[in-house]
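Appendix B, record 7
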Amino acid sequence: MNIVVGIATAGRREVLSETLLHLTRQTRLPDAIFVCPSAADDIDEAFARTLPVPVTIVAGERGLTKQRNAILDRAGAADLFVFFDDDFLPRGDFLAEAQRLFEAAPDLVVATGLVLADGIHGPGISVEDGLEILRRDGATTAGHPPTPVYNAYGCNMVFRFSAIAADKTRFDERLPLYGWQEDVDFCRRLSKRGRIVKSDALRGVHLGNKRGRTSGLRFGYSQVANPLYLFRKGTVSLKWALRLMGGNIAANLAGSLKPQGLVDRRGRLKGNAIAFLDLLRGRMDPQRMLEL
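Structure tokens (predicted):
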């Protein structure tokens, strides 16, 4: 199989370099890596040229969905297309296990792995700590069969490229900047082509680096606007959208009473409120967060 890795990045130059270096330690190396930075200084080009895997830098407009689409447009055909976040450290056998998984199941179109630790839920995980978590996990043998899931987790997504190419599927660019829930939308549109699974043979650590994140206010707006937008376009059910919104709003309410440091719950709650006001006024749209 030909395996291509794509990474969209913004404001994490040092972490990206560590991630790229880490990818060269895979037991099954990627055939190519495509990186789309939001700005020229988001990537150390000189360092990237020293790596034993070809790294192609792709020009694209700022925004996760736009950057990922630029990668898809530039990379061309592959057997497997893997999107990693710029702060995701896959275990050394991740790509080898992905190849084994997709070769064994021709009806499989999307797979996501087991996140051993996720810094997104706290202050973040350092590269050193992430590598130590992987080292400790190194002897673990994953033997469970893959399980069906609704969508892949955006930090690590493996796609059978023929499923993407069949309808020229692309990420929805109306989901701006961080593109929250873009992974759900993309995966659900591919679901008609085959199965989506989670496999504990695919393992890694999501550092959850806080640089390059969307502001609390904007993110809060997206927490309401994006799920309802996906419902309106028919990607997800109303029940799914309401459950996601309700959980996030409840967390923001609770967190506003007791601030949580790096998580701006009050800003998110304010963004939630603005989105509901826009809904009542008939002007709610994911793109509106750019005006906040």
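Remarks on this record: The mean pLDDT is 94. Residues 53 and 135 are 23 Å apart (CA to CA).
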